[in-house]
Amino acid sequence: MIDAKVRTNILRAVDGLKDELVQLVCDTVRIPSCTSMPEGSNSGDTTVDMSGETRVNHAFKRVMESCGLETDMWEVAKGRANLVGIWRGKGRGRSLLFNGHVDVVPPGPVEKWTVADPWSGEIIAGKIYGRGSTDMKGGVAAAVFAMKALLKAGYRPKGDAFIQSVVGEETMETDAGTGAALQRGYRADAAIVCEPSSPPQRFSINIASPGLVLMQVKVRGKAAHISMRSELIRPGGLGAAVGVSAIDKTFLVYQALLKLEEEWGQTKRHPAFTRPGHFVLFPEVIQGGDMLAASIPEECYMIYIIWHPPQDTAESVGEEIKAHIARFAQTDPWLRENPPEVYVPLFSWPPFETSPEEPICKAAAIASEAVFHRPAMLYGGGFTSDASFIRQAGIPTIVMGPGTTGVAHGFNEYIEIQDLVDAAKLYAMTIVEWCGI
Q1: Same-domain pairing of 34 and 126
Q2: pTM of this prediction?
């Protein structure tokens, strides 16, 4: 249990730093830090030989050093610098790692940002708008100010604390970002990834995520002039002797995969995911034919994003889907002789899973109750993050942070200012409970 006086002093310290915290988030949101942007383009100055990711980390570095943290800033990829803020423990306490990324997804068409410009960092009705506000510059800033508030209140963590602010998460460049930081030795007894963890409840504690698999299914047809369409579909027509629409056959495969997705809703289970049907096969792209060719399409393909439970692997899921498609193909004369080509996994992001009995889960729950005066909710979150790679490194990991996943990657992304303040309080209380002071 966290001492009442300690709690009061730290929460008051966070409140006193609110304006500085908000300013840091606004400033960093105004720095475009899409991984895909070439060097110099983020600032409008072609003489600047650094990415937006690096510029954001320079902003975080100044604040870290101003409150007494050591910093380590280095590049794995040219012009793209990672940053770690370091607190060396003043006694025998458990160590804690905070992790977040400074790269963001592209904003898309600016005209679709109807509330504020994607790089404005504008404050409207208690919210900071802009790409990366929720995902996830706000979370990194909150972790920095949690440490700043602790030290301002006169408390020194007993255990080591690290704040990783890394590049390349959105494109799974873990070797350049989180993986590089772990390889450099920035590990701890437990980790908190500061991604948004609402809903189901504000500041829920995410203890698991599904694995992600990318799959391509290619279906072949038989080209013919479009005037022969009636021969394919009318009774007594010549059918496959003349042509076969790859789009028609792809639609059949799509329906078969839709049936498998329905089955998964009943058969795929994991205790951290309370809602049934969380694990899905989603067709991201379906493409076939050429309007200018005026012919029955010879080829069509689908790209699927697949979410699978943590206990499954990308390979086992791939084999399951291949077997399902192969069985279905036997029910159609054309597909039986011309089976769909299935490429899986084209790409995969591993799941993560931490037992709710892990001490870090209990420490975070105690901290949550100290801040919000209600029991914490542990759940499985439906998105990937660098928690997967930290957990693979053997570190018990949770995801817990400000903002809601519903606005991440969308137009008019924002973060509530109150969420930033509450996140800093939550992180500070977790440091007290976990590291000791």
Answers
A1: yes
A2: 0.92
